């Protein structure tokens, strides 16, 4: 079986060091740009749900917001676990072991099947957790209904993520970009139909409010996934890879290898997301104004974070390909030069957040009290952006080397060992000076992520692939 690796070409060692570095950066851009567009498309789905649910009622907005905050950390955990597929498949490609690609893909699908069962069981039995939040009856019913409707699309969503391991692992990152855009384009009209109702001739659909967002997302996920499967079976690019024809049974050893690599990634993502959820809960006693300011800054920085995150995902693919090809020198060159890319991105993002803080805050609100706090937090977010970009770049390099356990421990130390306890002290206590309010948590984020960036960078320079 042969496969053109034009999306992941082998390096030319006859070129100078500078030329090779620039060519590797070009490969990262070609791999990373479609990933960035796909990430933004997926983020747009959340924005569409929030805006359209908000126009239905405040209760619908709250229900969808709470429901989303519950399924996102769970999904990201499984995204991390299945994220082991990309570096492993990319490594097979680099090594020329293309016959191993579909068996690995199938083991990922089996993991996705198990994840589907666990996630659906959790979402459809979420009511006891919702009761602990002490929500009003209307908001609780909307959140519960939204999650039950969303759960119908979980199999399609996790299957899509597993198949992304195949397409991204082969370096074809434009594929998921296209189907992510398709899902977003479908989500807008489907949201309108299910949230506000539809009445045309004999076809009538009652308005469902926020619960309709769950149905719209499920349907758009199924359409995008089915379309992807059809594409994979009909495209000449994947003529040597057949989901049905290349079916293999469960291989416990290979599943163990995938989980050994993927579980630390999933746990790291879960720790990071849950930390930000915890911060929001800790800030709640300071009042709605403080929480709103924090959420504005967090949302804005999340948008800026999409660029380094996409670069990191491309780095994982490229480094794993080079390691699979046993070109350790080129992998080392790319890993170390990526630090310069991270610093360069930081030097663009941080000044925008700092000097554009008034304008950025005004995009979200006209409330003067919220604006006052948000603009102060944006100054801290500018510094936070620098260390955050470096840490995500370095941890992505390590994932390309299939080194995930020690980086997981580093992130656990940084998030739960430094950020949360230090943030609580700086925010509410006067042990280290006057309590700082929301600024305390953002200061702690800078401290924790600085630790992560430093330790991950040191590990990157000292790490030697086996």
How is this fold's topology laid out?
Layout: H1 17-56, H2 58-82, H3 85-95, H4 101-124, H5 127-132, H6 137-151, H7 154-169, H8 173-196, E1 198-200, E2 203-205, H9 211-234, H10 252-283, H11 288-324, H12 328-355, H13 357-364, H14 368-400, H15 405-428, H16 438-462
Antiparallel strand pairs: 1-2
Overview of the molecule:
It is a single chain. With 466 residues, this protein is mainly alpha-helical. The protein has 16 helices and 2 strands. Strand 1 (198-200) and strand 2 form a beta hairpin. The chain is globular, with a radius of gyration of 23 Å. It starts with 16 loop residues before the first helix and ends with a helix.
What fraction of residues sit in β-strands?
Answer: under 5%
How much helical structure, as a percent, in the residues?
over 70%
Instruction: Tell me the domain tally.
Output: 2
Mean pLDDT: 88
Shape: globular
The strand count comes to: 2
Order of helices and strands: HHHHHHHHEEHHHHHHHH
Q: Count helical runs.
A: 16
Q: Helix- and strand-based class?
A: mainly alpha
Nutshell version of this structure?
This protein is mainly α and 466 residues long. It is 80% helix and 1% strand.
Which tags fit this structure?
466 residues; mainly alpha; two-stranded antiparallel sheet; 1% strand; globular; disordered N terminus
